[in-house]
Automatic annotation (TrEMBL):
Alphabetized UniProt keyword annotations: ATP-binding, Nucleotide-binding, Transport
UniProt key word ATP-binding: yes
InterPro entries given in the database record: AAA+_ATPase, ABC_transporter-like_ATP-bd, ABC_transporter-like_CS, P-loop_NTPase
Entry keyword annotation includes Ligase: no
Residue intervals of the ABC transporter domain: 9-243
Gene3D superfamilies: P-loop containing nucleotide triphosphate hydrolases
One GO MF term: ATP hydrolysis activity
Name of the protein in question: ABC-2 type transport system ATP-binding protein
Organism in which the protein naturally occurs: Deinococcus yavapaiensis KR-236
Family, per entry: Belongs to the ABC transporter superfamily.
Pfam families in alphabetical order: ABC_tran
């Protein structure tokens, strides 16, 4: 459909003040097609303000935002034609209309832009099924729970298969299965080539599926963590961690090997090399008691980063 790693969202030198109060300070970020970018940070850091600026709902004091190459604040409707978003939680719907009717209305409004042709009744049923609201499709939104409205919001955002999907705290108020559902939708959207920006406080969960995490604090993007580079670390519990690490560091598919007793930890070029590491350690007479992905602890990293 789209998505070739090209920049989909580009934010350059974005600052925002409310009156004299600076809220965002010189934000630069780029999100590519196929990428999930998760924005996190303490309450009041400026996440919602940044998302409002990126979606065109708020104007920056300086700097610019482009969506698929179109400036959001200068070519508003053309830029927004590439966008699906939920910025207010829960999204606003007509409570006297059913979920399906609301989505139909949403599609009709979108059809005045370039994307409406992509949406028909079959697509509406499809997105309702994706957010597991098939059973509620013909019930009035006034009867929906908060979490069901939240999921309907996500359904409306993905309805026209936008190139850019932006969700402000899409999982707040959802139960654990609902959170998993949204994560799957977001991952699938990126896998089919869409760019995704979302904000979340669920660090351990976003660490599992975001490609990049931007940490916003005091209106500044204090760190951008490339999680995809951290996914191929493995730890091996062995009888001799130092010897295992020195053996592993001679292998050309191991970028780096370190000791974290009782483990030897290897950053592999690709996780497909795990069996080769095991074979080599066995050949060298090192006993391996356990091998597991060495998951990056985003929560710990975040805590340390903000305490600096
Ligand atoms: N319309 C406004 N007028 C003045 N100040 C505002 C306005 N909107 C937001 N702010 C201020 O901007 C700062 C950032 O708010 P924002 O809602 O963007 O933070 P956030 O990171 O999304 O927080 P949370 O995690 O609590 O949702 C806060 O200090 C807030 O008080």
């Amino acid at each position: 459909m789209r998505g070739d790693g090209q920049p989909a969202v580009v934010v350059r030198g974005l600052s925002k003040r409310y009156g004299r109060v600076p809220i965002l300070d010189s934000i630069d970020l780029t999100v590519s097609s196929g990428e999930v970018f998760a924005l996190t940070g303490p309450n009041g850091a400026g996440k919602t303000t940044l998302i409002r600026c990126i979606t065109g709902l708020a104007f920056p004091s300086s700097g610019e935002v482009t969506l698929m190459g179109r400036n959001v604040h200068e070519e508003g409707s053309r830029a927004r034609a590439t966008l699906g978003a939920v910025v207010e939680a829960p999204a606003k719907f007509y409570t006297r209309f059913t979920g399906a009717e609301n989505l139909r209305l949403h599609a009709r409004l979108a059809s005045q832009g370039a994307r409406g042709a992509r949406v028909n009744d079959a697509r509406i049923r499809e997105v309702l099924a994706l957010v597991e609201l098939t059973r509620m499709a013909d019930r009035r939104v006034g009867e929906y729970s908060l979490g069901q409205r939240q999921r309907l919001g996500v359904a409306s955002a993905i309805l026209a298969q936008p190139e850019v999907l932006i969700l402000d705290e899409p999982t707040s108020g959802l139960d654990p299965l609902g959170i998993g559902l949204i994560h799957r939708i977001v991952s699938d959207h990126a896998a089919s080539g869409g760019a995704v920006i979302l904000s979340s406080h669920h660090l351990r969960e976003i660490a599992a599926y975001a490609h990049t995490v931007g940490i916003l604090a005091g209106g500044r993007l204090v760190d951008t963590v490339d999680l995809s580079a951290r996914h191929s670390a493995f730890r091996f519990r062995v009888d001799d961690p130092s010897r295992a690490a020195s053996i592993m560091s001679t292998l050309d598919f191991v970028n780096r090997a370190t000791v974290r007793t009782p483990y030897a930890v290897a950053e592999l070029r690709d996780e497909a090399f795990v069996p080769d590491v095991l074979a080599r350690l066995a050949f060298e007479g090192v006993r391996v008691l356990e091998a597991a992905p060495d998951l990056f602890d985003l929560y710990e990293y975040y805590r340390e980063r903000l305490e600096k």
